[in-house]
Amino acid sequence: MSNNPQLATVEASGDQASAPPRRGLHAPKHGWIHEANKRVMGQTPKGTPSATPRPSNVASQQRPASAELDREVETIFRRTARYGGDDPRDPKDHAYEPAREQDSPDSDSATRVPPSPTNPKSKHEPRQHDDNDSDQGRPRGNPDESKDPNQVEWEGEDDPENPQNWSQKRKWMLTLLASFLTVNVTFASSAPSSATQQLAQEFQIGTVTATLITSLFLAGYCLGPILWSTTSELVGRKVVMIVAMFMYMLFILGQALAKNPETLFVTRFISGVCAAAPLTVAGGVIADMWDPVGRGFAMSLFSCAVFIGPVLGPIIGGFVTQSYLGWRWVFWVMMIFAALCWVMILMFMPETFAPVLLMRKAKRLRKLDPEGNKDLYAPHEKSDWSVGGIAHRTLLRPFQILMKEPILVLVTIYLSVVYGILYGLFEAVPVIFEMTRGFNLGESGLIFIAVGLGTTIGGIINVFVQLRYRQLTPFWHGMPPPEERLWGSMIAGPILVLGAFWLGWTGNYVAVPWYVPALALVPIGMSFTLVFISLLSYIVDCYTVYAASALAANTIIRSAVGAAFPLFTRQMFTGLGINWASTLLGLVALVLTPFPYIFYIYGSKIRGWSKFAPAFDLKVRKELEEEGKLPKDSLNTTSPFDRNGLKQAKKDAAEKKDPEKRQSSS
Known about the structure:
With 666 residues, this protein is mainly alpha-helical. It contains 25 helices and no strands. Helix content is 67%, strand content 0%. The two termini are 40 Å apart. It is a multi-pass membrane protein.
């Protein structure tokens, strides 16, 4: 074995020169460009006998050997094939792995070229040479050669094309963009609610009929998720966002120019169907980029956006409606906002859906070398996209899960009631502040600032709640129990009940200052955000591969309930009185409050019986019990608040930071 690095380099060059020649994956096999390239790089031209290798002088500084230049050219070819002509010059990318029969056991490790990070095989493992390989080399669609080598996958864990490996800055910019789009469509859901009375007078219709302008938009949310989630899984996120937002913008134009209520209501419903795209796809974009730890913080921002939009709607819509512009300008403002968002999608949003990106990569590789890579494929290309397969995933499976999963049923009921209360406020607040206290449209809309303040506070609280989940993630090997997501809803349940009673019994009496019932909307807003972030994250963690179907079922039921609430809220508050109507909502919330606590205690056992919940954490729990990090049979022998191993997780984290603690404890 030689310790001289220069000698090692020469020995490596000699080994490579004696090995069978191996071309790059997409290197040209013939032609004048090939011959000119060989002359420039110092290779033997076609028809010229091979030159005898000259003995190298180790002590002298000489020009790099031809084999080394060949390796550099090989690397460039592989990079060009991988990135479709874009060479990011990643210093960690060692795309070339030299062909050799077998490493000699007494050879120096310094003479070996490090294996490519795209190939997980050990560098000590001999590489078998296939005589059937073409001159173009073996297609390396899948870097893990233990699987189908023709299946296109990511080039290792650090592949820059994988959205999970994008920079934090880029991820947060796209998260902000997705949240901004969500603000846009949720703003449109509530902005026309302030023009209900003007619409009734303009078209000579009843007040309840005019309320359909909000309900029909929310009814579109029932159909939209089925349509857009399926389409985004077929063609990608960006295409769906571009098409849906363009249609959404055009149908707002129909609302602004409507001459009769039928046109207004039809275009309003279609706009709701299109507006469901950002609500459905934006969550998918966040899941495409973020791991479970970072996803919690990103979802906090996204959930705040879901509630900021409905809060801004009555504020802006109220002032525009009572101004000289009139109610039609509410729709013109919505259209301008939608056009701005559509341009931002065109300019700044990339594709993030991994199966579609891999499919494009497979097509790119086949185009670069139609002969050598003709067998490469992406898994997405072999998915079942028949009408029957799509119908099963989008129509049958969501309701199949809903009927068989008690967790999903109870979570859907809770979220539906909270969602209904949110949109019921658009009819309840005018009763409390306009009809009872004499506020005008603009002043009544300003009351919703309290809801926005509450949702923001709820998002901040959720960030601190996620720190607990973050501490548990390494201890549970990246799969903590989904029940740890429930802390937000456990905090929010009593707060929602308190806010409902506070609003009703202070808003009913004119003698109570206006700001007292207005402040009651702050805890109500807090509960909205905390419940949504907590329970939606819980659904995703519980059902993982079936999360899309579970969320689709939840969205359909939730949107239907949200659409129904504005139709009877005003009548309920005027008929029962503000105090008793709010008390009724508070009692419903009180009945639902124990659900998160029940799931936190018994959720793991319930998921163990489920046919759709994989329950990976239960397998990790057994491993931790065998390692002694959790007590034996921890689900039955420990209290519900100690079975997550948080104390041991903190102890392990402290030992990693301070190895002396580990030595002293051992």
